[in-house]
User: Fold these one by one.
Assistant:
Number 1:
Amino acid sequence: MSELDITSIDPNFNANEAFGRDDVIMRNCREEPFTVHGVFWSEGNFRRMPKTVAERVSQRVLYLHNHTAGGRVRFVTDSPFVAISCAVPSKYHMAHFAFTGSAGFDLYADNEYVKTFVPKLNYSDGYQSLITVLGERKKRTFMIDFPLYSQVSELFIGLSPDAVLEKAPDYRYSLPAVFYGSSITQGGCASRPGTCYQAPLSRHFDLDYINLGFSGNAKGEDAMIEYLASLPTSLFFLDYDHNAPTVEHLDATHEKLFLAFRKTHPETPVIMMSRPKAILTDEEVKRRAVVETTYKNALAKGDKNVYFLDGAALTALCGNEGTVDNCHPTDFGFASMAKALIELIERENIIK
C-alpha cells in the first residue's frame, strides 16, 4: 500500500492551513484592546528580554531570547471562532518534542483549554488556523499561548465581524513572576505551550509571568545576574542547575545570583529548585547540595522569603515516568512540577 497523507484518513489531523471562509476580520495582536504578556515586540520580533542585554550574556542567549516561551495575548470576545495568522520564520523538528509545543499556539477560554492552532510540518515562514468555539455564544476571556521554541515576528487574530472585542481583565497581581532556568524552564518537551509548568501555575493563581528559560544556556552569567536583579517581579524562581557546566560553576554562581537579586529585592519571595529528577547520579546529588546550601545560608541570615523545592518533590506525581529522555518532562512531568509548586505556594502562603 502506498503512503498516504494521514489527513486523508482522519480529517481531525488537518491543521486547517486556510480558513475557507470570508467572514474573518483580522487584527494585529499588538494593538488595543489586545494585551501581550511575557514578551514584547522590538525590531521586528517578539522577544523575552532586550536584545542589548542578550548580546552581553552570550551569542546563544542572543539566539534564544526571541523564542517566545511564556508569551501570551489576552482579550475578551463573544466571537464564535478565533483564528490566527502568524509569521513564524524559524522552526525546529526534534525527535522528542511535539511540533505543537515548539511551534504551535494554544487557545484558552476562561482558563479552560479549547484547542491548539496546529502548524503544518512543512510551513515556510508562518501559517493560518481557525478554531470554532463550541457552546453558548457569550463573552469570554481568551488567551493565546505563544510557541515555546520558535521565533514569532507577527501575530494577527481573526474574529467574527459582529463580535464584541474588549480588553481582558488585569491579572490579579500587578507584577509578573520571573522564571530563570534551563530547557525545562523554557518548556521542553511540552506537547503544547499551555502545559509547560509555568502555564498551569499562572492560570491557577491568575499570575502574569516572564519565562527566562534558555535551552542549554542558563549559566548564571554576570550580565544575566544583573538583568534578573533589575526586573520588577512578585515572585522569582531560580532553576538553572541543569545548565551549569560543572558543580564548581554552579557553586560559584548560584549564591552569587541569589544575593544580587536579594540586594535589589529584599522582600520578594524566591523559590529555588533542584533538577526535577527522581533518581540522581553522584554528581547530581552534589548539584542539589549547592542549591540547598544557598537556601540554608539565606535562612541562617534570617531570610524569611526563601524556599527550596527538591527535585524529588517536583516529580512526586510522575515518579520516573514523567520525561521523554530522563531529562525533559512530558506533559505528565510538567503537571507534576506545577502541582508541587502550587502546593508549596499555597501551603506557605507565599503570594498574598
Number 2:
Amino acid sequence: MAADNPVAAWTRGKEGDDYMLRNATVELADGNTTTVDSLPLLALHAYSVERVDPDGSVWVRNPHGPGNGADRGNLVRVPAGDFDNVFYQVNVGGL
C-alpha cells in the first residue's frame, strides 16, 4: 500500500448508538495531546485514518473537520484493542 492512498474506516452500530472512548487521547491542531474522560465516535460514520502507531493504535479524524459537535475535528487515538470493536470496515483508496 502506498503511503499517499487515503484510508477510511466506518464505525459499527446504529444511528444514535455512538461508541464512547474512555480516557481518550486527542491531538489538538497545535500538535499537543490531551486526555479527555470520554469522547464519542459516531455510529455509522466514516472516519479518515491519519496514521497508525507502532503499538497498533490508530489515529482517526472526523471528516466534518473543526467545529463538528462530536470531537471538534481533532485527531483521536483509538487503541489497537478497541479498533475492531468500533470499526467494521476499512477502505484504502487508489487500490
Number 3:
Amino acid sequence: MMSIIKASKLVHEYQKLGEDGRVESSYRAVDGVDLEVEPGQFIAILGHNGSGKSTLAKHLNAILLPSEGSVHVDGKDTRDAEKLWEIRKTAGMVFQNPDNQIIGTVVDEDVAFGPENMGVPTDKIKKRVEEGLKTVGMWKYRSHSPNKLSGGQKQRVAIAGVVAMHPKCIVFDEPTAMLDPIGRKEVIEAAKRLNREEGVTVILITHYMEEVVEADRVIVMDQGKVLMQGTPREVFSEVELLKEHRLDVPQVTMLAYELRKSGMDIPKGILTMEELADALVQEKKAP
C-alpha cells in the first residue's frame, strides 16, 4: 500500500535577508524529518512552541516547499508545480483560527466555496455541503451567519468546508489552540468521527496531550527533529524524557506516574481514568 504522506530527510530553513537581498541568517525549523502516513491512519504530532510541528504541517499540502529532502502526497512530489492543485485536493488543511478560513456570509455558502472553485457541478455541490455539515454536526446552522457562531462551531464549519472538497487526508494545524474546552472537544470529536466513520486520514498537530490518546501513532518533535514516536501508550510511558523536553503528559498519566513513584504497583502508560481506576483496584487486591 502506498503511503498517503511520505517525507524523506525533510529540511526547512527560514532565511532572513538583508537590504541588499543577501541572506543574513537562517533558522532550521525542520531538520531531517522522515515521516510516513498510511491511508486511514490517525496520526498526532506533538511539540512545544518552536518545535517545528506547524512548519512540518505546512509541507503536507505544499504551503511550504522543502529546503532539502522531499515530501510526497499520494505519490506526488510537492515540488511539482503541475501537481499542486491535486496535492491540495488530496490533503486539506484546517488552521488555528477559523476566522481566517471562513469567507462566506452564510454557513452553507462558505462550505460551498471550495467545491465551486474545483468546478463541481451545482447539484453535486448541494449534496457535498449537506454531507460536510452533517458530518461535523452543523447542518441545522446552514442558514446562520458564521459571525454569530461560537469558536468551536466556526471551526467545525471550516472543517465542513474541507470535507466538502472530498480530501483523502486532512491536516489539522493546532485547530483547538484558540478554543475553550467545549470547543476543543467538539472539534476533536469531529476529527475522530471523520477518521473512524469516513476513513479520512487525519494528521493532528497539537500541544494538548489529552487530544491524542486515541491516535494510532504519536510523533513528538523537538528543535525541528523527531524526538520519539510510537503508540500513545509507548510515548506517554516516557514521562521523564517528555518532561526533560518541556512537554506535558495527560493529567491522568501524570497522576499514575506520581502514584507509581510513591511505591504503588501501577503500570506505565495509563491513558484514561478508567485504566487508572482498574489499576488501583488491582493494586488494592494484591497481597
Number 4:
Amino acid sequence: MIKKITIKNFKCFKNETVLDLKKTNYKLLEQNTCGKLLKGLLFVGENASGKTSAILPLKLLLDLLFKDQEVEFVLYQCLFSKDKNTELRFEFELETHTISYFLSFSKTAIIEERLSVDDQLIIERLGGSGKLFLGSETTLHDVDKSLLFLKRVYFSTKFEGNEILGRWFDYLKKSIYINTYSKQITTYDGESLIVRKYMEAHGAEKLNEFFKNHHFNYSIQYAKMAKAQGISFTLEEEERKMIFFEREGLKISIPLFMESLGNQTLINILPAILCAVERGGLLIIDEFSSGLHNKLEELLVKYIMKNSTTTQLFFVSHSTNLLSNSLLRPDQIFSVEMTGNEGSRLNRFSDEQPRAAQNLEKMYLSGIFGGIPEYGTDKE
C-alpha cells in the first residue's frame, strides 16, 4: 500500500507537495485504515483547482509501467514554473518492508530513477545509463530515454525472484483507473472491466448480489431479448446481448441506454469497484459524483472502506455530503486550491484538528479548510 507521494513541478503543483497516507491520532472509523495506513484519500475544491492533478501521478506511474503507449511528458510539467524537471517520489509499505521509487523527467525524456527496498538501492538510472543491484552489479548504457528503466528491469529479469518486489508489482498490476464522466475504465492486468465484457465473462450474479444486499429496487439481466406487456426488445442474431433493468413493480425490462445517467454510471463502474475491493490495489476515480445521488455516493465509499483490505481509494468529488466523520476520517480529506503563480496547494482537514463531533461539511463550506470558491453571488 502507498504510504506517501511527493510531487514537484507536476502540472499545477509547482512547489513540492506531499500526500501523506499515514493515519493520525483520530480514533474513529478504524475500518478506513489498514495498520498504520489509510485506505484512501478524497480531494475536494473548486473547479480547476487541481483536484484531478493530485491523483494523476498514480495513473502516470501505472501507465508508464504497464501500458504500451507513448507519454507526452510535457503535458505533465508545470507550465508556469522555471524548473526544467518534474519530480515524483512514491513510498510504499509491504508488510514490514518499505519500497521507495523516485522518478524525474524533463519535457522530452526521463532524467533519473531510483528504486530501493528498506534503503537498499536496487536500480539507479541517470539519463541513458542504468545500474541494477541484484546480486552482482549490472550496468546498461542503452536505456531508452522515453521508457522507464524500472519497467525494462522487471519485464526482462522479474527482479530475479526477489519476492518483495515481485509482490509489489503484483499489487500495482491490480490497480484500476475510472473516469465516470468520460466512462473510461483502465486496468493494468489485462482484464477488461468494461461492463459488457465483464458480464460476458462473469454474468450479472455479483452485480445483482450487490443490489440485493443493499436493498436496491431493481436487478439487471444480460440478454438478447426482453419482453413484457406487449413491448419487446429483440436483437439480431449477429448483435451482442444488452443490459436490461428489471424494477420492482414494473412488468417490463428497460434497456440500460434508456436509463438515467446515474444508473448508467453506476452499472459502468460497479464491476471495477467490486473487483478492486476483492483483489486490492489502487482504485483511482476521477469525477466520482457524475450523475450519482448523494446517498449512492456515500454507499459506494462505505462499501469500499468496509469490505476492502489492501485497496486504496483515491478519488475526486464535488459532493460536499461526503465530508462527514461518519464516512471519512479528517486525515483522509484534502481540499485543493489554486494560489495563482505559486500553483495549487493541498490542505489536509486533520491539520485543523476538527473534533469527531463537528460537522466537516459545514466547516468546509464556511472556509475553514480552504478550497472553497468565492463567486460573485457570495459577495453581494
